[in-house]
């Protein structure tokens, strides 16, 4: 493992370790010491690469939101018509809810952090705007806003349900919301 300034992956390892630790212990469980240990870096690397815990948390959650927006892009870039876009949204809900438990936990941790600390709300606003921009390729802005909320709600309900609803119900909900507009 490279050391000091010759270790170009150190910052990325710190961010990954931060997200892993948050997924395992929650934001309340993170500390510079725990993150450094998990990342396999000297404790001094924490303050060298980040201005403090808030800076590190913002960077880590920005990295996480980039990952989720990439999922939106992967599902919503290909559709050519409205019916394909509806189907893509339903597929996205099922991919998000059936995917990584880590992603579900990180999403909720970010929302909780943003609810408690207004400085993190800007990050969630940016994330929502980026998600909606993918939806607005196929639906008007008002519908995109409603779909964004529906995606969040259906994803959470499917992920936490004892018996998650099927794709037909998801598609029906998406179709109802998108029945008007563009």
Question: Mind explaining what this structure looks like?
Answer:
The protein is an all-alpha fold and 182 residues long. The chain has nine helices and no strands. The protein has two domains: 50 residues, Homeodomain-like (Arc Repressor Mutant, subunit A, Orthogonal Bundle); 117 residues, Tetracycline Repressor, domain 2. Helix 1 crosses helix 2, helix 5 packs across helix 9 and helix 8 packs antiparallel against helix 9. The longest helix has 24 residues. The model has no long low-confidence stretch (mean pLDDT 92).
* Main beta-sheet strand count, sense and barrel state: none
User: How many whole angstroms does the radius of gyration measure?
Assistant: 18 Å
Detail the poorly predicted runs. Answer: none
Q: Which outline best applies? A: elongated
Itemize the secondary structure elements and their pairings.
Blueprint: H1 10-25, H2 32-39, H3 44-49, H4 53-76, H5 82-98, H6 101-116, H7 121-135, H8 141-160, H9 167-177
Helix pairs in contact: 1-2, 1-4, 1-6, 4-5, 4-6, 4-7, 5-8, 5-9, 6-7, 7-8, 8-9
Which terms summarize this structure?
Arc Repressor Mutant, subunit A, mainly alpha, single chain, Tetracycline Repressor, domain 2
